[in-house]
Every structure is written in structure tokens, then in C-alpha cells.
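re the bet — no i am not wrong, look at it urself. input seq straight from the record:
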Amino acid sequence: MSLSQSEIERYSRQILINGWGMEGQKMLKNSAVAVIGIGGLGCASSVYLASLGIGKLVLIDKDKINSSDLNRQILYSQKDVGRLKVEVAKEKIETLNPNVEIATALEEITIDNISRIVGKVNVVVDGLDNWKTRFVVNDYCVKTRTPLIHAGVSQFYGQVTTIIPREGPCLRCIFPTEPQETRTTPIFGGTSSALASLQVIEVIKYLTRIGTPLVGRMLFLDGEEMTVEIVEIEKNPNCQVCSMI
């Protein structure tokens, strides 16, 4: 698809980036990204992906908006409490950028429905808050060879990595034992926004082929001490998921 004059004007500042250009912007317009979980991470990543001109966003979440979401889930306001997250997110993002196609799914991801819900996208963004579903998404992405941008947040801390099947480790390699779930995770809104922004950077780097993605590396942010650490992670040759492809 070509770019209209209004799109060229809208995206003019990022088109100037070295290696991006008109061709890079066309790549974004021709891409589809699924955001699973439209909470603290998913709200921020969806806003930026739409602002950048991704052609199609698939927003997936089954929950309604609660008052306790409003400290970090930036797409929602007080008047939205009680409404479905995907409905409000779709409305707000379409207002932000009418050039982006928005699809929604009001379902919880399972092994049985993930193929139908996620469909054929170029990248999946992990905005989830539980490990059971994360591993379902990881296994699907590995099986379909779809890049997955993972992030997790708690309090002032966060982590992010990019999983590209056959090129580096998957979540099962990194976490062979499923981490213990927490009933209610304490979270500062700035942490989720920061990690979501890093996820968006990883999406754009993959789609435009600019820079080096966090494949085989995990970035840890400690917002209390304001430190960033990048740790090398290796593929497990005996991984029950990615060693099979």
C-alpha cells in the first residue's frame, strides 16, 4: 500500500530517521500487530503503535475497566469504568489515528482459540499479567514462527525481551518452571509505560530492520535505583517447545 499525502505529513518526523524512510513507513502500514492484554502495558503500546502508523492492530482482552486500572491504563478515564477495555481502546485509538484498522477480541486466550483470535499477524506484543496465558502465547508464536515481544512489570521494576523463533530462546527456555502468580501485583504507572515503550521500539526495529533486537538478551529496569542491566540468555537445546522447530 502506498502512503497518502496526509500520512506522509503525519509521519514526517520518523520518516527522517536513518534507515526508516518512506519504505520503512510503508512496511509499517502493511503490517499487523496483535496486542494481548490492554492493561498498563497494552494501553501504552497500542497508543504508540497506532501513532507510528501500524496498518492493523488486533486488541485482545476480555476484562472491563475498574477504578484501580486508572493509575496506569492511559486509554481509559473515570467515565469508562465498567465498560469493556477493547471497546474503549478501539474508540480512542480510532480517534487518535483513523488510518489504522482496529480489530478486537473479547476473549481470554486459550490453547484452543489462540489461532483463531490472533490470526496471521507480523508481531505479537505481550501485555499480559499472568504466566499461564503467556506460555500459551509463547508456544503459539514458536509454532507459527511469529515474533513475540515480552515484557513484565511490578512496582518500579520491569523486564523486556524479543523472541524470534529459530533465532533465539523462547519464554520456556528462560523460565523452565512457571513463575508463581501474584494475586494483585503492585504497580507504578510510569513503569508500565516505560516497558511498553521499549516493547514498541522492539516492534519497530523488527519491522523496519533497524538496529539489533533483544534476541537472546533480556533488559531489566530498576526504576528505584534507575539502573538498566542487559543479561545474555541462551536457547535451551532441550526446550520442550522451541527445540522442536
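see?? Residues 31-244 form a domain with the Rossmann fold fold (CATH 3.40.50.720). told u. also The chain has nine helices and eight strands. so pay up
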